[in-house]
Amino acid sequence: MYYYLYGNVHFNIPAGGELVIDNSGYWNVPTIRPVTDWYGALGTSTKHFNTAYINHLFYAIPCEYSDSTLKTNFRTIESPLEKLKRVKGYKYDIKPEFYKNANQKLKGKLIQEGKNRIGLTAQNILKVFPELVFWDDSAKIYAVNYTGLIPVIIEALKEQQVMIDAQNKKIQALSEQMEQCCNSKKSSPILDPTNESADLARLDQNAPNPFSQTTEIRYFIPENSKESFIFVYDMTGLQLKEYQITTQGEGSISIHGSDLKPGMYLYSLIIDKKEIDTKRMILTKN
């Protein structure tokens, strides 16, 4: 049996404030509200509502029961990063028929607000995190516990950070090894065997260093040299560039930043298959 009241309803609760039912809310639809701002509650800590179906929900502080005393049987989230890689985010529109029973004055606005949403699909989440998906038997549709993804993301970030830290250690160790290699493998200068007073082979530090567009590397090649090269390597030792030097004496080459990605590089002077010197150069972004 239904009881009908017409007009606005105003409840004056002794020592507890006032409650109003009218049409003063969103787009003038029926609204339950307190008379005084921030003065009112739905349910209590011991008397809960079971379900709420809401299209728009605006709030200041969302709170979810998460006290450890309420929980038991704790387990580790297995492979969080690998599982998150299988989750697909989308931009999408809500089908207009979802709002078929909406107030006619409000339907157009709801359909418009249902466009260009960003989110997930329950069917995709069901394959990866079935515990975060719920079936609404009354509406015959799936729903997703988005908040439940937060612990997964946290654990995935921690797992990813462990990988990054390990990679950084390897890069640091490799950089130190390359530094030691550069310092220890500097060969003795090449001398002209027919003239002990001949000038020495030389590789200068590039200038400017660091550089963003072009840098110059100066060198000196003794007269008796047969084959001379300057090679450019990345910090893993992979050769990236080769410059053959066909003349003796003083000379230079130019390195263009557009030919490389920003980073740290090594360059070596090789004369007659012997390393003369190796130095570092740094390329920065424009």
Number of structural domains: 2
For this structure, what is the CATH class of the largest domain? Mainly Alpha
Along the chain, the helix and strand elements come as EEEHEHEHEEHEEEEEEE
Fold-level CATH name of the largest domain: Arc Repressor Mutant, subunit A
Gap between N and C termini, in Å?
A: 76 Å
Cross-sheet strand order for the largest sheet:
11-10-13-14
Low-confidence stretches: 185-198
Number of helices: 4
Major β-sheet profile: 4 strands, antiparallel
CATH arch. level architecture of the largest domain: Orthogonal Bundle
Strand content: 25-35%
Q: What's the helical proportion of residues?
A: 10-25%
Shape: elongated
Radius of gyration: 36 Å
**Mean pLDDT reading:** 88
**Strands, count:** 14
Structural class: alpha+beta
Summarize the structure.
The chain is α+β, with helices and mostly antiparallel strands.
Descriptive notes:
The protein has 286 residues and is of the alpha+beta class. The protein has two domains: 77-183, Arc Repressor Mutant, subunit A; 185-283, Immunoglobulin-like (Sandwich), CATH 2.60.40. It is built from four helices and 14 strands. The chain has helices at 80-84, 104-113, 122-128, 149-184; strands at residues 9-13, 17-22, 31-34, 90-92, 117-119, 133-136, 141-144, 202-203, 214-221, 228-233, 239-245, 249-256, 263-271, 274-283. Mean pLDDT is 88; it is low at 185-198.
